[in-house]
Amino acid sequence: MVGSLLVVSGALVAPATASAHGKDGLSWVARLLGRQVLSADDGWAAAGPGTTGGSAATADQVHVVRTRAELVQALGGDNATNRTNATPKIIYVKGVVDGFEHVDGQLLDCADLADPEYSLDAYLAAYDPAVWGRVAPSGPLEQARVRSVANQTRQTQINVGPNTTIVGLRGATLAGLTLMVDTANNVIVRNLTFADARDCFPAWSPTDGDAGNWNSQFDLMSVRRSENVWVDHNTFTDGDNPDSGLPVYFGRPYMVHDGSLDVTHTASRVTASYNRFVARDKVMLIGSSNTVGPDVGRLDVTLHHNLFEGTMQRLPRVRFGRVDIYNNAYRLGGDAFGYAIGIGVQSAVYAENNHFTLGDGVTAADLLYDWDGTVLTERGNWAREGRKPARPVSLLAAYNAEHEPDLGGDAGWTPTLRSGPVLPAPLVPLVVQALAGAGRLPV
């Protein structure tokens, strides 16, 4: 029990009297949920001091926001400096908050954020590999693109400070923005739909891969240089702007989306639970560089009871960190599918009792990818390939049978931070489908 709320498989089930609302328009269940802290032992975010978010907020630091301007104000008043505002605060999001909303309430578009010296047409003409060659763009037009990105960053990147809880009321959406948790310890984010954090000014990287790639900057949510962050019961999606509908330039898809929930730049002690990642390409990057340095001993993350549905890669991709991946449900397939779990440099992944439903053309051998890693521990996982019955599967054996070099089977650690029993893998799709994502909490 949490107060008078019963916790059932990660969701809060309220008694019949929960509909009563206070003067602030919030039900007592919403107010109680806003002060809920992460349970002891619930993943890496429970390590050290634990994760309490804004639970200690005074009454004047409890806010209901409906616009970008109100969200910035609730976070401290100045988006440029809010990341240092450590005052405990609880913020409820109501309706759709759009990162492109100007202070006057009008919605901006990409043209409003572009530097006067930048245009996509000019960029495409100048840096066409047939004209420019296979070298990185440079010069005044590329500098204008960089200035345009800076304009968008100031507008659509919303900075969160320490000791903050953000909860979505029913139907709440953060659209067209990046929720940035950078140097901000002790943050809780729950029950929100994150949609379409589009980059207006993607960069052409001609040496990225054999044919080059377009790369975008903005994640739906980013955790950097922070500890004790709990991300729970959210939905991450491209909304009505899927990558599949975007044009092709220089023979490559014009990618305007980056990650869903990236954990990078020495961040650590993160728990992501009961989230739904829907129809996205890049989902979760844990560690952003192969450089051996500050990330060593960091990037400890727990993923449990999340749904990855129609997603293509980075589920997650891991460097350096000890990452506990258990009781997650994967529904994967399609020609664009890349891999599920990326085993990167010095990573230590522990994957237990996950369930994979695989479409035609995807097999268990496709679920791992070697990004210069060497080992993982895996046990109790199940997979259903095509129309075959679900069955136990060794991800490691399936991978090693078709790839060289082999991955080793001992990541060198055993998770201890788990707040409840680990479900048998056959039950995982039923539980996760019913409980993961925004809208499952009673607010």
Topology:
Blueprint: E1 6-8, E2 11-13, H1 28-34, E3 62-65, H2 68-74, E4 89-93, E5 96-98, H3 110-113, H4 120-127, H5 129-132, H6 140-156, E6 157-160, E7 164-168, E8 173-175, E9 178-182, E10 187-190, E11 193-195, E12 203-205, E13 213-215, E14 221-224, E15 227-232, E16 235-237, E17 248-249, E18 252-253, E19 261-264, E20 268-273, E21 276-278, E22 285-286, E23 301-304, E24 307-309, E25 317-318, E26 322-326, E27 329-332, E28 341-344, E29 348-352, E30 355-358, E31 368-371, E32 376-379, E33 382-385, E34 391-392, H7 395-402, H8 428-435
Parallel strand pairs: 3-4, 4-7, 5-8, 6-9, 7-10, 8-11, 9-14, 10-15, 11-16, 14-19, 15-20, 16-21, 20-23, 21-24, 22-25, 23-26, 24-27, 25-28, 26-29, 27-30, 28-31, 29-32, 30-33
Antiparallel strand pairs: 1-2, 12-13, 17-18, 33-34
Question: Mind explaining what this structure looks like?
Answer:
Belongs to the polysaccharide lyase 1 family. Residues 1-20 form the signal peptide. One of its GO terms (molecular function) is lyase activity. This protein is of the alpha/beta class and 443 residues long. Helices cover 14% and strands 28% of the residues. It is built from 8 helices and 34 strands. The strands form 7 sheets. A 10-stranded parallel beta sheet has the order 3-4-7-10-15-20-23-26-29-32, with helices on one face. The radius of gyration is 22 Å and the shape is globular. The protein starts with 5 loop residues before the first strand and ends in an 8-residue tail after the last helix. The model is unreliable at 1-19 (pLDDT under 50).
